[in-house]
Amino acid sequence: MIRVVLVDIEGTTSSINFVHQTLFPYARQHLRAFLRAHADEAEVHRQLDEVERLENRELSLQDAADVLERWIDEDRKVTPLKALQGMIWAEGYRQGELQGHVYDDTPEALRAWKASGRALYVYSSGSVEAQKLIFGHTAVGDLTPLFSGYFDTRVGGKREAESYRQILKTLQCPPAAVLFLSDVGEELDAARAAGLKTCQVIRDDSTVPTADHPQVPDLLAVRLD
């Protein structure tokens, strides 16, 4: 019996295009102005220190912006970039310039799983703050009350089995009672290596199918028995 459903975001609950065609360009467009306005704030300063550590060199604010823009273009899954993107997006959501995208079947499936007594969690390469923003500002309202918790790259990369073992320690749940949903085969492989149940969500032709995991076209087709 599945007791916990762990969901990816891009390509699973939400459109990859929303992230890559709306969120990423928005963060890139507003990055330098955001850094100029907030560089002295403790959390922003902490993330800039981490950028320097990863680059192994001292950086001016302009240099740091250059590095962050390069990381955006390379779609790097690094924590300081994700954290700063989340802060920029938070301003966009507050100002009404952004609205989180979820597929039409996502709210219905999440509510049904929650009503059946399952606990719902998110694991995405985007920061926890960014995850909450996406689900907190959708066209159908705030979906965050449906979730019991969130995980990001601070537990490790999504293609590493150890990341899922760390998640299991937090969940305090047997691996076979946790179902991980993603569109990416390598992520599902890593989750399965940690003992989790898996299912690949194939929304469209942009997803590479893998016969190693059960497949569904949307969340309403997911079986939890």
User: What integer value in Å does the Rg equal?
Assistant: 18 Å
Number of helices: 8
| H/E topology pattern | EHHHHHEHEHEHEE
Question: Please, how many domains?
Answer: 2
Model regions low in confidence, pLDDT < 50 over at least 5 residues: none
CATH topology type of the largest domain: Rossmann fold
Mean pLDDT: 96
Helical fraction: 40-55%
CATH architecture call of the largest domain: 3-Layer(aba) Sandwich
> How many distinct beta strands?
6
Strand content: 5-15%
Which superfamily, in CATH terms, is the homologous superfamily of the largest domain? HAD superfamily/HAD-like
Identify the strand order in the major beta sheet: 3-2-1-4-5-6
- Name the structural class: alpha/beta
CATH class of the largest domain: Alpha Beta
Sheet with the most strands? 6 strands, parallel
Cα end-to-end separation? 6 Å
Shape: globular
Question: Which key terms come to mind for this protein?
Answer:
about 220 residues; Transcription Termination Factor Rho, Rna-binding Domain, Chain A, Domain 1; 8 helices; alpha/beta; Rossmann fold
Topology record:
Layout: E1 4-7, H1 16-38, H2 42-55, H3 61-74, H4 79-94, H5 105-115, E2 119-123, H6 128-136, E3 149-151, H7 161-171, E4 178-182, H8 185-193, E5 197-201, E6 215-216
Parallel strand pairs: 1-2, 1-4, 2-3, 4-5, 5-6
Helix pairs in contact: 1-3, 1-4, 2-3, 2-4, 4-6, 7-8
